[in-house]
Amino acid sequence: MAGTDIVEFVAFRNILKNYQTNKDAAVHQIGILSKLSVLLLIGGILLVLSGTGFLIITHNAFGSQLWFKIKIIFVLGLVLNGILMGQKSENRLKQSLMTGNIAKTQQTEDAIRAMIRFHFIQLCIFFIVVLMAVFKFN
Fold this sequence. Notes:
By secondary structure, the protein is mostly helical. It has helices at residues 2-19, 23-34, 37-57, 66-99, 105-134.
């Protein structure tokens, strides 16, 4: 899931730069990237299942510790952010691309910027999750 977010973050930044000069290539790149959203969903599900499995295997040894509770909240935040903000931004981008109107260029660029913000937020949350796993505090 983190790998897909990194790829999409970098790709959308590149698409935003290319959109002003070569709209057709940018639209093609966005079409390819839209297929990665399925991987994000699968990654989110696997992330939650692995955390649950971790609790089951360790007989809830970490479940009572504060760092693990906070980490799980951030992991759920990743999934919720993907469902709420990610889907909304992706749908807005697809809608602005379907119109094909040149007057909608600013709307499309704003939608691309929203996708960049979404992936940046996801990466920040991932960083917090990793920090919580490395620096286990009580």
